[in-house]
Amino acid sequence: MDNLNIFNELSELVTLRINSCSEVVHVNSWIERRQHKDYDLWYIQEGQIEIRIRDEVHIASEGELILYSPQVSYTATTLSDHCKFIFIHFDLSLGNHLQILDNFQLSGIMNSMLVEEEIRLFVETYDLYKQNKPMSEIRLKGCLTILIAKIMEQYELKQYRGEFTQDPINQKQAKYLDKLQPVFDFVHKQIHQNLKVGELARLAGMSEKYFITYFKQTLGVTPGRYIYQLKMKRARELLYNKQYSIQQIASMLGYPDPYSFSKAFKKYYKVPPSEFVS
Questions:
Q1: Angle in degrees, CA 91, 157, 148, rounded to 5
Q2: Is 218 in contact with 177 (CB distance < 8 Å)?
Q3: Is there a contact between 125 and 110 (Cβ–Cβ < 8 Å)?
């Protein structure tokens, strides 16, 4: 699965939570064997680290990022007289799917040149966080969000691909999103229609009941919620454009009349479309 646009489409449902953040210094006798329950990001400030995952050996050096998935077991040790790095444990979820990132090959070592500005901002904010400055926790969360978004962008541009391999069971689980790609493509092309879940289920080769369960388990939201959010996002863009009437927008998004569209829009944005950009 290479297309990360799902996070942009459902951005309102994306939640990032920082569980812990600190920095450590380890001498050359340090060794760590772990599999985290959440995502773990390291920024190496000094030294060099060897990471073993199954039969593979990876080397991370000063200035590089290391992203660990909860599905990856590793052994880490320093190759220099010491190493120093900032680490941050976090959860990133889409809807109620806490490990949505595991559908993408993001876990690995990344050259900080690909995220240079985002790293600089993150480190500066971490220094404020260490000093317990006002609003530093909120700023740290914002900077981490920007950094993760940049990593995703570089992945989608094929500038980066993580090399840490999951075990075979977890690799199989991470393929579930691939089966829904034809559904995503169809919804995008037919957003102007009144889309039916049964039609999408047939496209995925599943019964409607199983498709709804599969979709929600894989993506964290129901098919209906996914379609609704896409239509509302598109409606917002069209309203900002100011080239179309509410009746035209309703028709462009598959609503039978302006009233149905306005009702759906108000439910989502808490204001009617006529007042949204006024």
A1: 20
A2: yes
A3: no
Query: pTM for this one?
Result: 0.81
| Whether residue 218 sits in one domain with residue 81 | no
Digit-by-digit pLDDT tens for the chain (278 residues) are 456 778 888 887 789 999 999 999 999 889 999 998 899 999 999 999 999 998 899 999 999 999 999 888 999 999 999 999 999 999 998 776 777 888 888 999 999 899 999 999 999 999 999 999 999 999 999 999 999 999 999 999 999 999 997 655 555 545 567 788 889 889 989 998 888 999 999 999 999 999 999 898 887 789 998 999 899 989 999 998 888 999 999 999 999 999 999 999 999 989 999 888 66
| Residue 211: domain span | 176-276
CB burial class (10 A; 0-12, 13-18, 19+) of residue 189?
A: exposed
Closest CA to 13 of 164, 230, 160, 277: 230
Distance between CA 6 and CA 181 in Å, rounded? 10
Q: Domain check: are 145 and 218 in the same one?
A: no
Same domain, 145 and 207: no
Shared domain for 31 and 148, answered yes or no, is yes
Number of structural domains in the chain: 2
Q: Strands 14-27, 82-94: parallel, antiparallel or unpaired by DSSP?
A: antiparallel
Residue 80 DSSP symbol: S
Do 47 and 90 lie in one domain? The reply is yes
* Contact status, residue 5 vs residue 59, Cβ threshold 8 Å: no
For the chain, what is the total number of helices (H) and then of strands (E)?
11, 9
Any idea what the CATH number is for the domain that residue 116 is in? Answer: 2.60.120.280
